[in-house]
């Protein structure tokens, strides 16, 4: 029996938090998981979320099951947020939405859908990508391949490598695209490059599968960060979009998000939704209520929506500030190296290019916890810790 079960390794991202908690050194710093902290390094619940929670309590809702596809007002505002309230695709019923368990749960249902209806199709994920992408698709029985993304020489996007890999991918493949603020690199294609990616997806009959986990965090603007998704949808491609409210509304533990399916006509959309519901029913039955009600209150109420945008700007702005402070400090301490890549990257993370040994030095010697791929979450850095971090980085690069 269970003696044949091998010990699993710690999770590459969430396992870092466990290790951080076990460290008793006062100087310790958790830059592993992408979770926003204030400048005192405390978790943040947005004011709009507190207000929405109060409203939800006052509604005295029952605890009945939601429909398999979730809370209808949530699905409506989520689709409008992603595709635009005036989207012709929404008006004509070409987009269907399934409330799901944040980004991971939405991707997992989408992966099961791919496995069931496009058997043999491979999914292409960027190299590198968020550590969970591979697990999600592999566990759903979908073969995972990679396309080039990061160029260590320029610490930028390897766009020609990416296009060459997509060119040689079989027709009908599924292509994972980070909608904005690519995790872990913080490097996104330009508008012109997105157009070329769209063209190749159309020409090769790929199924684009967008992962949108940072809408509002990349540029500070919800519409700008939905640019790529909207451009692809408006071009008439059938595609999937996973949407998370973990970061932009700070609803990490509420596990609230959505899977959108954009179809070429209403019939395709309806049939796809019927099957997504069937898959979700077997995976977790129906989604939880509270997070969806909070989102529906915030995103669906013009006043709270405006307030939310202000709070999101505040979070994105704080991250930008510590990014800049870190670069300034690194330039002072180690002027012969180039550090501008840190401010060229956007979103929550910086991808430092550190080797495994350098990451180990950061953690074992300096108590700075980060993922092994060299990613640091700037959302977990305070201005008071910038100098400490800069010293640790310089020491690790020099060793
Ligand atoms: C991260 O990349 O740190 C976040 O998306 C959290 C997670 O679930 O891995």
TrEMBL record:
Enzyme class: transferase
Gene Ontology biological process terms from the UniProt entry: amino acid metabolic process
Species this protein is from: Chloropicon roscoffensis
Pfam families reported for this sequence: Aminotran_1_2
Keywords: Aminotransferase, Pyridoxal phosphate, Transferase
Gene3D superfamilies: Aspartate Aminotransferase, domain 1, Type I PLP-dependent aspartate aminotransferase-like (Major domain)
Domain annotation Aminotransferase class I/classII large: ranges: 28-393
PANTHER family: ASPARTATE AMINOTRANSFERASE, ASPARTATE AMINOTRANSFERASE, CYTOPLASMIC
GO terms of molecular function: L-aspartate:2-oxoglutarate aminotransferase activity; pyridoxal phosphate binding
Self-association state and partner proteins as the record states: Homodimer.
SUPFAM superfamilies found in the cross-reference section: PLP-dependent transferases
Cofactor: pyridoxal 5'-phosphate
Listed EC numbers: 2.6.1.1
Other known facts: In eukaryotes there are cytoplasmic, mitochondrial and chloroplastic isozymes.
Keyword Repeat: no
Protein name, UniProt field: Aspartate aminotransferase
Reaction equation(s) it catalyzes: L-aspartate + 2-oxoglutarate = oxaloacetate + L-glutamate
Annotated family: Belongs to the class-I pyridoxal-phosphate-dependent aminotransferase family.
